[in-house]
């Protein structure tokens, strides 16, 4: 089976700054692939390029065989991107936000309503789904946004720091949802600086530092290679 | 089409919030309140005003004066008490005016001596009622003087027309415009042109400013609330996002402008209600061909439409460089200046009287044409209108194209970053 995502010698520069420096990795279909590294290491830039938001300065990225630059429109139909610290439209209610986003994925009203129903279930906000987003807590907004990202059952979910700033309970619930979707066939590319979270979720991991990938493999392989107790130690030893 | 409609609807809901509309509604309430107050004041000014009149004789001329004053809207109370006492009474008993007719009025007028009638206006505040009353009394005495002198002239020089003696030289003023002649003065014609075209620049200025602010706020909010990235990765054409934002902003701006203009119109009619001058002016405008034709109105409409489109595209371009809603508003300041400069120039100066550099500057600003076209239509300056339409069309197309390109590139997310680096 061909890879879901292929990143080949990807480089991205902003003026004189090289944010991503000739990185390569591949993600298998249905796999949860974690990109870990400190802030400013190039994780978000990589995710944004895979999500068709930024263009590579050099190298290439394909998603299910489609080039993210040349076939950006087609790629957007199979992906779903959850940016770090993303927000929702504050003057819409949670359900209206889900309905608004669902409109872009189907022209059929019945199908759209089905997507919204899935979204409501995933968000798990009860009656608060009818309230304005501006009244939501950070955790509620994040749950709504993850529900938005997953309700369309994307072939590839790109999740940037999915549990960032959440309490233990909300973070746990979101991790469970990500695992469930991966089991149902959704490929997941996630980034986090929470190494324990990535170790818990990911089948394979790439450690990125200063725009370069310094190690790739399953958490078990990496721990064995670096004789470490956990990914945190791997990261410190690999650096 | 459905996606576009969804985006437009979302934009309107995000932009036209209660918090956003509240200041506008407050202004409208103030306008309506002032309008009502002015109407009430005008009504009071038209109502009969009590006037105390010191009269020391009974004669036909005194009766005529009293009767004329009563017809002008004064409720006359006659008294023969001394002036000083009458002054105290007038103040105490709420009279608005005290008139003191001199003794031997009839006799002195019969001898063709001039007399002084003292008019005391009791000032209890400054209002329309107060000033209107003074004007009324003056006009009554002008009429009485006129009639009295005509009568005397007829008695003394029965073979002559009194008017020929009173006004031996008269002037009749005409204006010649575009080969057509009509009675009037340049001031009157200017007033006519302004009355037909003054609303257009105000509405336009409001719509352009609000629409630009709306789209800047929309893009700024998307960046501030971090919703832009999600929207840009959705499977929709980026052109639809730009178009949806532009149309949403335009609709929101139109709603606000309509609310504002409604309030202003109510306020404005408080001043012009019942004016007969308006009908007279309209007939002169027709004689001179100064009225705007339906074709002219269509041309103005096209110019305004193009200007709004261009303004929205420029605002989009400027807002792309913003970090949040606040900086987006700041970024569109140059656009506001480009709208305000032609607005004030066209109000204060005649474009033909401007120096060449100023004229070039004014014609180079695309937003000048909506202000220039209405006047150009009236004076038949068609080359300027055609040039303006062509220039605005090209400018609008180029700016929309650039705005569209910017939305399809990753500069939408990186423009600020690059700009900041360059500065440093």
Mean pLDDT of chain A: 91
List segments of chain A where confidence is low: pLDDT < 50 over at least 5 consecutive residues. none
- What would you report as the Rg of chain B, rounded to the nearest angstrom? 32 Å
CATH architecture of the domain at 5-88 and 156-238 in chain A: 3-Layer(aba) Sandwich
Strand order of the biggest β-sheet of chain B: 2-1-3-4
Total beta-strand segments of chain A: 10
Sheet having the most strands of chain B:
4 strands, mixed
Name the poorly predicted regions of chain B: 419-424
Structural class of chain B: alpha/beta
| Helix content class of chain A | 25-40%
Structure notes:
The complex is a heterodimer of chains A (239) and B (424). With 239 residues, chain A is an alpha/beta fold. Chain A has helices spanning 43-50, 72-78, 94-102, 109-123, 138-150, 168-183, 195-201, 219-225, 231-238, and strands at 5-14, 17-27, 32-36, 58-63, 66-67, 79-82, 156-160, 187-192, 204-209, 212-217. Chain A has a domain at 5-88 and 156-238: P-loop containing nucleotide triphosphate hydrolases (Rossmann fold, 3-Layer(aba) Sandwich). Helices cover 38% and strands 26% of the residues of chain A. Chain B has two domains: 2-35 and 182-423, no CATH class; 48-170, 3-Layer(aba) Sandwich (abc type-2 transporter like fold), CATH 3.40.1710. Chain B is built from 19 helices and six strands. Chain B has helices at residues 2-15, 18-46, 60-71, 83-92, 105-110, 128-156, 162-166, 186-197, 199-224, 228-232, 238-272, 277-288, 294-319, 325-331, 333-348, 356-364, 369-378, 382-408, 411-423; strands at 49-54, 74-79, 97-100, 118-121, 174-177, 180-183. Chain B starts with a helix and ends with a helix. Classes of the chains: A alpha/beta (239), B alpha/beta (424). At the A-B interface, helix 2 and strand 6 of A face helix 1, helix 10 and helix 19 of B.
């Amino acid at each position: 089976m061909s890879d879901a995502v292929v990143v080949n010698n990807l480089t991205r520069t902003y003026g004189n700054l090289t944010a991503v420096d000739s990185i390569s990795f591949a993600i298998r279909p249905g796999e949860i692939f974690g990109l870990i590294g400190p802030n400013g290491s190039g994780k978000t830039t990589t995710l944004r390029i895979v999500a068709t938001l930024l263009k590579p300065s050099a190298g290439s990225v394909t998603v299910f065989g489609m080039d993210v630059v040349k076939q950006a429109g087609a790629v957007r139909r199979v992906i779903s991107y959850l940016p770090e610290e993303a927000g929702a439209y504050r003057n819409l209610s949670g359900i209206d936000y889900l309905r608004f986003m669902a409109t872009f994925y189907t022209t059929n009203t019945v199908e759209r309503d089905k997507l919204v129903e899935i979204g409501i279930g995933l968000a798990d906000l009860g009656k608060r789904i009818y309230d304005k987003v501006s009244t939501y807590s950070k955790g509620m907004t994040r749950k709504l946004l993850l529900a938005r990202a997953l309700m369309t059952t994307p072939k590839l979910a790109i999740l940037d720091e999915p549990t960032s700033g959440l309490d233990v309970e909300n973070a746990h619930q979101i991790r469970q949802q990500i695992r469930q979707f991966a089991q149902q066939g959704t490929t997941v590319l996630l980034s986090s600086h929470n190494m324990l979270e990535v170790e818990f979720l990911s089948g394979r991991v790439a450690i990125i530092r200063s725009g370069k990938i310094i190690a790739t493999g399953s958490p078990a392989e990496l721990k064995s290679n670096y004789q470490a107790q956990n990914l945190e130690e791997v990261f410190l030893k690999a650096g | 089409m459905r996606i576009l409609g969804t985006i437009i609807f979302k934009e309107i809901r995000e932009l036209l919030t209660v918090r956003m509309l509240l200041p506008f509604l407050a202004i409208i309430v103030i306008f309506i309140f002032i309008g009502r107050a002015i109407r009430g004041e005008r009504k009071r000014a038209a109502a009969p005003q009590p006037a105390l009149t010191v009269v020391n004789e009974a004669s036909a001329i005194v009766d005529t004066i009293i009767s004329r004053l009563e017809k002008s809207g004064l409720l006359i109370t006659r008294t023969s008490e001394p002036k000083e006492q009458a002054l105290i009474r007038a103040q105490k008993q709420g009279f608005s005016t005290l008139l003191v007719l001199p003794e031997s009025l009839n006799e002195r007028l019969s001898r063709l001596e001039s007399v002084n009638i003292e008019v005391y206006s009791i000032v209890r505040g400054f209002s329309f009622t107060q000033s209107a009353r003074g004007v009324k009394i003056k006009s009554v005495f002008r009429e009485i003087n006129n009639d009295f002198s005509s009568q005397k002239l007829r008695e003394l020089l029965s073979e002559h027309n009194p008017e020929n003696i009173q006004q031996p030289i008269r002037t009749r003023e005409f204006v010649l415009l575009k080969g057509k002649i009509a009675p009037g003065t340049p001031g009157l014609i200017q007033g006519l042109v302004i009355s037909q075209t003054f609303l257009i620049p105000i509405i336009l200025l409001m719509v352009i400013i609000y629409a630009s602010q709306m789209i800047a706020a929309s893009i700024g909010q998307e960046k501030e609330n971090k919703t832009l990235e999600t929207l840009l990765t959705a499977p929709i054409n980026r052109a639809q996002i730009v178009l949806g934002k532009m149309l949403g902003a335009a609709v929101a701006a139109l709603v606000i402008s309509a609310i504002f203009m409604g309030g202003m119109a109510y306020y404005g009619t408080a001043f012009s209600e019942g004016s007969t001058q308006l009908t007279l002016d309209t007939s002169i405008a027709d004689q001179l061909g100064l009225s705007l034709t339906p074709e002219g109105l269509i041309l103005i409409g096209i110019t305004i439409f193009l200007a709004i489109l261009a303004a929205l595209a420029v605002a989009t371009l400027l807002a792309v460089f913003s970090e949040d809603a606040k900086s987006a508003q700041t970024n569109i300041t140059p656009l506001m200046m480009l709208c305000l400069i032609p607005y004030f120039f066209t109000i204060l100066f005649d474009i033909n009287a401007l120096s060449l550099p100023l004229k070039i500057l004014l014609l180079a600003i695309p937003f000048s044409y909506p202000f220039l076209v209405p006047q150009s239509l009236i004076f038949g300056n068609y080359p300027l209108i055609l040039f303006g339409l062509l220039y605005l069309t090209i400018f609008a197309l180029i700016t929309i194209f650039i705005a569209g390109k910017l939305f399809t590139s990753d500069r939408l997310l990186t423009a600020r970053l690059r700009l900041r680096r360059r500065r440093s």
